[in-house]
User: Fold these one by one.
Assistant:
Number 1:
Amino acid sequence: MDVAIVGLGMHPFGRTPTMSGLEQGAAAARAALADAGTDFKRMEFAFGGSQDSGNADSLVNLLGLTGLQFTNVANGCATGGSSLNAAYSAIKSGQYDVGLVVGFDKHDRGAFNPQPADWGLDDWYGETGLMLTTQYFGMKIQRYMHDHGISRETLLRVAEKAFRNGSLTPTAWRQTALSWEEIDNAPMVSEPLNKYMFCSPAEGGCALIVCRADIAHEFHPRPVYLKTAVVRSRNYGSFEVFSPAQPPEVADSPTVTASQAAFELAGVGPEDIDVAQLQDTEVGAEIMHMAENGFCDHGDQEQWLADGMTEIGGRLPVNTDGGCLANGEPVGASGLRQVQEICVQLRGDGGARQVPNEPKVGYTHVYGAPGISGVNILAR
Amino acid sequence: MSNAKPLHEGLFSWPADTPSLIGTRCLDCGEHAFPSQSACRACSGQNMAPADLGSEGTLWTWTIQSFMPKTPYRTDETPETFTPYGVGYIELACGLKVESRLRENTPEQLTIGMPMKMEMITVRKDEEGTDLLTFQFCAAEEQH
């Protein structure tokens, strides 16, 4: 049984001081139900996740205690991707006909505050100043720039594109385009990455209604079909965050393994993708993920960015809503925002940021701690 | 450094004239690990032996910590006295790359591939006034 996405709902990312994370999740769920022309009583199952805003299944206190199967998902930055993966399996197997996928979060300002013990590390690692995700991102792109000839100008181009696309996206947190000079002169955070090259922890909620493909038109006239949903974790040798040491041989990242599996399962290749969301925790991530997901060779990003090939009108538009850079990252919801933006583009509802020529096949990629990656391929 | 001790036991040989990083080597597949591991991440084996990982290597990648981290960072510094520090991975003779603070803290001082050596630094003092030590790496050759 094929799987369709028939409802999209979002509580805009950013800061909503008057609402808890849970309330933002409920708002997103209600919006998705309305978009699908249905109600919560119709939902047979739900998969939901939140890193810092409590148990996702507490949503039933706001949406109704209907007795549905509600499973909490906690899988780091891939929480949204893992929730959708679980919903995909639930429908694919024939177990259920229609259900809800939801993610939300409300993070404090500033960087995340990880504790060594939660990561199987001793206290010295954090106390001596090695436990910052920003350091890892800086070091990974530093080595990549050295190995593959990526220039600082290319980092700037990715940031410039993100905020320009954010300025075209009514739901984006950062809706002001930034000039080259503003980005270039921003305070350095972790060499070579400065303030405007990183996304920020944020707040927000995102929800999808997922159903059997053969009943999709009962809910929405323009369903988007989920061709495949894949999640992979790290192999030995993959260069990941919070690693006191790395093995001699650098192995493929979980992005590479998830991407290859997704293309194989969906029966399409990178050349078939019309619009993509690639995890852009920082600008280097978007650059590296272009190649790790198979869209170009390592090093080709220099020319791709110079030629505008990932712009909205380019060969492969990437992060058309401004990505994590312009939307921030509420961890539980972020992977679902990516899927939602691809659905908006495939429906043709992108407005000022709509990819031209009626895109047919889209791609989403989430990546994050502790070395986990989720890829979805979608088609209309 | 008589009134000094490691912040965390077992990361490096101490006391020693030239402290050396201490890790483990898998007796089944030969892979090294740091810090010491009771099981091998490469082959899942459990036959691990202590290994002297040395105190020299080359710089594999780097960044600079330009602002004072929040907890779990724990030193005697204040935001006013905080000094930026480098962070990098040092490729050791056995091939393992170990993450470390770096003495160098400006981009001009750091180049991928440069020879590095280990030294001891004080993280903070404990309640008795004893210096708590950890390792960091610095340029092995005088810089011009």
Note: Chain A has one domain: 3-109+199-379.
Number 2:
Amino acid sequence: MQTPAPFDYAKATSVADALALLDKHGEEARVIAGGHSLLPMMKLRLARPDALIDLNDIAELRGIRIEGNEIVVGAMVRHAEILSSAILAEHYPIFREAEHMIADPIVRNRGTVGGSMCQADPAADLSAVGSALKGTAVIQGAAGTRTVALRDFHEGPYETKVQAGEILTQVRYPIRPGAGSAYEKVERRAGDWAVASSGVFVVVSGGVVTDCGIGLTAVGADHYCAPAAEEFLIGKAPTEENLAAAAKIAGDSCNPVADQRGPADYKAHLAYELTLRALRRAARSSQGA
Amino acid sequence: MQVTITVNGVEHSRDIEPRMLLVHFIRDELLLRGTHWGCDTSNCGACTLWVDNEPVKSCTMLAVMADGKAIRTVEGLANGAELDPIQKGFMECHGLQCGFCTPGMMMTCRALLDGNPHPTEAEIREGISGNICRCTGYKNIVAAVQWAAENPATSEVTA
């Protein structure tokens, strides 16, 4: 039987309350969202917090809404809500495509956006989506609120810009009229972590790519993105040749490690191929096809 | 820590450690052994039950997180002596062999049908992708869900 080591537990009723509870319980306190990454780590004693502050009852961390030209996703929004969101489906089909392949429907009922972002697993799908869309994280602490670009949010595996005494409260994505987006993932079996994934958005206007974002996960891409490939594509026509050249730059920029999910050269090849497939579909969709 | 959790319509109050997992609360505190305890890693789905009408893997939720919530377990599926259509479907279509995955599988399938009364085979297969069955190859489980979809209960049962 796997049981976590003992800890104190408190249910927060608001963000202010959660911050006060974090302060009260000290540096070894942690917030818990869906718990589907943290609790397994606690069972294995890979994590051993003194106290858990439960965010599940905080209404202000819920909801997906449009504010100005941004889509705002609360940190406690569940994967299942991302999957069924009409707002996200309208602006960014990449979310729906990614979510269909994240874990399984029951885990998606509990797992959250904020939990996934803050767990910072090197194979997290939502981190690739966030980097592709060049979103922003909103972090709140006793000193106030600050924003961090999602491309700067992750310091490395399992490390983020969220400091002790702070909470990720929102993730915000800019709306890009006319953008097409797509997500491609290879997994060994339904619900597994990615062998490799690529998610992109593309805006095609006047026959050329005017804006794009490429996100990658599980392949050792810095900050889950491929900026050199994006730069290459801007101003060029979305021809098969140009998309393949961009995908090649993305694939070459990765640094995958061999593990039980496959050898490094296979993963690098997947990064190229999946990026190409995603770019093709996103470019086609931006052109109304 | 004091918690009050409603399970299958009955309120239970207990003093528990925060580290107690919901599956052990249900099985060892309330002695409701229908909810199975399987992989302990949120992969197999044997421990699936409902928290406020949503299927959850109870090995990966703390019991204290369910304080004040309404739980429904496999024991709450039947309406008295009248089995739920999903239970009848598993019987009619031989949807189980060893039965270990069955309680979690049925809780998932009941929720699937509540949200989508006429799922396609692909929707059923995606719906049960978080519940692992080592015996059936899933064919008869899919058939059981289809049977339940075609033979819905005449009166709605909720916990």
Note: The interface with chain B takes residues 1-9, 11, 32, 35-36, 39-40, 43, 52, 54, 56, 80, 100, 103-107, 109-110, 190-191 of chain A (CB under 8 Å).
Number 3:
Amino acid sequence: MMNPVSRISLFVLVALVPSVFVLLPTIAFVANSFFAVENGQIVPTFTLSNYAAFLQQPEYWGVFVNTLGLCLQVSIICLVFGLPVAWFIWRLPERNRYPMLFVVILPLFMSYVVKLFAFRSILGLNGFLNQLLVASHLIDKPQMAFLFSRDAIVLTQASMFFPYMVLPIFLNLERIPHSLTQASSDLGASAGMTFREVVLPLTMPGVVAGLVFVFIMSLGDYITPQMVGGMMGHTFGRVVWSQFGVTFNWPLGASFGVVLVLVCAALVGAVGMTSRQQRI
Amino acid sequence: MDALPEHMNIMAAPEPAVAESLGGQGHLELDQVSKSYGHEHALLPTSFQVRNGEFVTILGPSGSGKTTILRLIGGFTQTSSGRILVDGKDITRLPPNRRPCNTVFQDYALFPHKSAAGNVGYGLMVRKVAKAEALRRVDEALQLVGLETMGQKFPSQLSGGQQQRVALARSLVCQPRVLLLDEPLSALDADMRRQMQQFLKRVQREIQTTFVFVTHDQEEAISLSDRIVVMSKGKVEQIASPYEIYYRPETHFVATFLGDNNLMDGTVRDGGGVDLPIGPVACATDGRGKGEKVYAAIRPERIGLARTIEAGKTGIECSVAEIGFAGAMTTVRVRPNSMPDLSLLVKVTSGRWIEDLTAGASVFATFDPADISVFSRTAP
């Protein structure tokens, strides 16, 4: 048994690291969003002008809405490809299942920047895609259109965040007892019906988790839009980044950050609510 | 969950009209069916038939191939050889969803996202049965298993016994020719298990569907079945009525797997009877030739104990080695004075004089030679 003094000091010790490195910065960050900037100096007064700027200026909320659309697009593409892939891996014989899963999530072990440069060289003017299309006479000369477009961002993000969709869906599928699909077949259901009536409903938590993962990561990403999006890659992540790194308006950037955090938290909360209502 | 009124509910006999619309009496035949995985034989070529409306139990320890048989009939595993026929129709190559059988799974395999009624109605939904008829049949099936008020509950809100009954109703609503039950009671506690046994037997009697029931529990097999298929190491040891399986075993495995038994080495005598360590006994030898090495088995409760023996009756003089009181019955281990190395287990009804017995006491063991069953010492 420990005496109360040492118990309290142990608690303080354990709580110290998260408080100093997570809680305090978050508080400072939220506080900053209510500060003002005068003559390039942060003035610690209370003002809502940063949030007002976000709501009033279309170049901010417009970009924000566009970015949400982009993230949704990325998430849906990941789902459309991720669900069949996860299902395919799940149906493999046991000894092939985990090696195949490993192959699919292997890109996660690669550096983010390396992957971005790979996409640049695939989509670029002298890139693989252009060469392929020219060689097959589908186009006359290399096009710039692949790189530095909204589609390039969607494609790149969908590919990079793909494992985050496959993984939760696969793990969810793994939790479905085989006897359930067998029972469905036993009761007369075809493979398609079994998928629709048993597998899919029981996989919804994994699907939702995958969607949230991909959506949130896509929302926070500001490097991909810059690297493959060019001028078209003006996403909200970059707007936030530019407030800190270009215009040095930290309070405005912080308020945008708070908006991002609130959207993500609302998303996670909504998902948590719906999944609690399910009986799985 | 399972309060008393509900137990009463289990006992309620289903309405005859309800029973008629569920299930059918299929005739099942296995013709040289086998299953092997590489060089591992899960099931050696096996043939047997299950008659219309019969309750057949496949009994064996784990790894005996009993579940393999059920999975082969259900279509979840492909046969390596042989044919499976239901009502004379070859179903060996049909997928599970096109077989006239339904399975009650060991873990019930209820769909967690569907209500009890949704589970029961699943087979009707995939068959696109008209809504009104489906509702009526689901109601009937739930009524049959005594859960008519639980239709809207989800599996997670039901007790083990209730889930079990939903699984049964879900299978029966599809009107299977043959119902397959894969150790359906093994997850229940002893009390619930006994109730479900009675319930299953009653349902089977009412709806007259052919049941193939798999279990490793000997008592369950004996009390439920019309016939028992005893399996060991992928092959059938004996197929017979519970009484015959118990009192007329044909192999060493059957004689020792079900309950206590006294087994002695013997040799067939010239002109009938068997030479046993306790002396020659005039028991039936089923036409076995002189000198054939056999086992002779007699159940402990078929041996009597007496302090004295009347003139003209035969008894073996023994001394008591061990006494075990178990309520209504007392087990006594005795050693024949002529063969002190042999020990016989005797089960007698408890009584005053048995109570007074002490180790070392001298008693006579008596038995009727007709109660001794004889079977070959070499595997058939």
Note: Chain B touches chain A through 29 residues (CB under 8 Å).
Number 4:
Amino acid sequence: MSKTFVTANRLTDGLVVFRTADGAWSTAYADAALYDDSAAEVAAASSEATVVVGVYAVEVEQAEDGSWQPLTTRERIRVLGPSIAYQRSA
Amino acid sequence: MYRYDEFDHAVVAARVDEFSSQVARRLSGELTEEQFRPLRLMNGVYLQLHAYMLRVAIPYGQLSSRQLRMLAHIARTYDKGYGHFTTRQNIQYNWPQLCDIPAALADLASVEMHAIQTSGNCIRNTTSDPFAGVAADEVTDPRPWAEIIRQWSTIHPEFTYLPRKFKIAISAGEEDRAAVAFHDIGIRIVRNDAGEIGFKVLVGGGMGRTPRVGRVITEFLNPTELLGYLESILRVYNLHGRRDNKYKARIKILVDALGIDEFRRQVEVEWAHLRGSEVEVPASEIERIHSYFVPRELPARPEAPAEFLAARQQNAAFARWVDANIINHRVPGYAGVTITLKPAGGIPGDVTADEMDAIADLADRFGFSELRATKDQNLVLPSVAQEDLLPLWQELVSLSLAEGNHGLINDMITCPGLDYCALANARSIPLAQEISTRFADLERQANIGPLTLNISGCINACGHHHVANIGILGVDKHGDEAYQLVIGGDARDSAAVAQISGPGYSQEKIVDAVETTVNTYLAQRTGAEETFIETFRRIGLAPFKEALNAAR
């Protein structure tokens, strides 16, 4: 069985944000609300043009550990951030 | 080095003000994202996977130490403390906040830098040979001509909304070091039989989903006619380039459709109107621009000094670095130095702010405060006394940037890939790290010899996989990453597009496939003097295919 979450990039800093159950945005994936049908939520979120950019829904599946994970590598990387240690000597 | 005049300063300052206002209007909601997007792109601001990205222009790759320190300041103040040098001799930052970008652009303007035309469907940063002005093999310094093109193409009102982006490269070395054959327009400065300098112009080269080697449109163009001729090419393209299909909108597709002869005819019809017009650069202006690039009076320094020769004999790591990373300078006693940003296991082209500052210090100490960014994602100190090579190398050792791997397998071009890029299908950087770790032994790299290995995370080919001796292309296989291996590309005058070696590989298998390809070359070469590409040209793809299939 699959569900979806709703995501976008935040206008001010471009960071990935997730739609929460109370209709706010969070940078933490753990706060993402899961929907059986997210069409209405995507439509509502898309009207927040001074808050976010590029609203869309991502399909997720439940992993063995019970967590909900995106189906594609692209979306998994988007949730987790770059897979590399990018601040070499920082 | 060119210095801004009052017009340059005014143009850049006005653009900072204009873009600051556009950002404010976007944040307030006065501009929609649809309206704002083309405006931010014209100022080098992308929205990537995790954040905005700011691409800063480094015209024909030339940088002063003061400018590099400013790039470090930008990384530290507005980003996460690092930057990424690109194949277009630019630098990009992966984490700037939109609300900070106007301030970053104002800081850049204070050292005569900007992000204008680093994106969008316009004429991008003109690229050139990183050793322009110092290489022993060059016909003339291409930088004055690159600067003339920069001034002509900056905010050119007719060419601000082209069908697609447009890239120009110019080089003048006996050996092309700017991949001119793979640009929308590639210019080689040549000398004719009468000893006069002129331009051989190629058009319709490019990578992406339709890789093409540029076709010769004119063998010899008089210098004063350059801008009239470029303008004629751009006009034909602007008029007939396809705007209905993004994937068919580059000039190479138009040149394919018309054929080079018909394309040339149309350009010449246009040129007949422009020849002798005000578009042509007056001799006085050519002279004025050249005056900024008068060769530096280098103090006399000993040629092949004893200490340098002794160190080269006694220190294998230094000797390797000298063999790979040094080129001949036009002035005896000097050398051109490549600082490869490719430590084993590192991220190709990434430099931290602290490293930028340290390299700027080295440029001050050993290199007349001058640097270049290269299309291979490295930095260059164009003029270093041979006597100073050892102390310079020792400083680079302490920065972990002293590997003598320039032009060898670990000197990879790698796009940001799926770790950052919204267009990518697969990751590039982790693969580059795995390959450079596998081939970390410098003796092994030197034994393999000159070899280009480039990685792109998608068919847009930002990682130049088409022109690599060994190229890797990331593809999407049902939402997972997969990689195609291509062989036999060449970015130089002997330009060639690499050929597909067979079915794709998983992430787990692709590095083994690279090793099989390298081992096949080693087994087949006639001797150490036959390079990978020479062997490939002699034996063709079949033996590589066979070995790769056997190893599957």
Note: Chain B has four domains: 6-109, 134-291, 306-398, 413-550.
